[in-house]
Amino acid sequence: MHSMNVPINKLWELEVLGISSPTETEKEKGDLDLNDFNDKMKILPDARYEVELHWKYDSKNLPCNKELVWKRHERMINRFGKGEFFSDYQKVFQDWEKLNIIERVPDFELNRECHYLSHRPVIKLDSQTTKIRPVFDASASQRGNPSLNKCLYKGINLIELIPDILDRFRMYPIGISADIEKAFLVLSVAPKDRDFLRFFILVMM
């Protein structure tokens, strides 16, 4: 029987039992991926960051799901098309196009085999910056085929760090919070990966 001398305070640490922190384990797994991600990142002349999708599996595994996503798009318009927020939802995409956040697919590329994302509106009337925004579904899949999410690394799980952040927030008498408007939209996707993020714009049916 193996025995070892361990200070009493160490008995309450999971590492003694061979159990490591899930957050630390995720960090160790994610370090190499994050380094690779950083190496491929570029800063564009307009100060936006261009990033590549971080593939876990070959992108060739993704099917062309244009027909499936178009049907979901039709159902979404039939459901929300007569609502009071529909014009506001349309304006979101119009504004994105003006800001070069999204781009229209050239006519000669419309028949190319690509992967599409469905989307729907999420409405938050109490938001000071974004009252209505699109949410894209990258988890949808056809039977026997992976979704886009399945083909990409999910990154590091930082949820377990939230209690520590909240504790630090409470250490001082004054706390400041901020909302960076459209923070994720300052990222530009590398041209070679854009065909995996196509979606249909809003048109009344």
UniProtKB/TrEMBL annotation:
Source organism superkingdom: Eukaryota
InterPro entries assigned: DNA/RNA_pol_sf (IPR043502)
Gene Ontology BP term (one): DNA biosynthetic process
PANTHER family referenced in this protein's UniProt entry, alphabetically: GAG-LIKE PROTEIN (PTHR47331:SF1), PHD-TYPE DOMAIN-CONTAINING PROTEIN (PTHR47331)
Protein name per Swiss-Prot or TrEMBL: Reverse transcriptase domain-containing protein
Organism expressing this protein natively: Araneus ventricosus
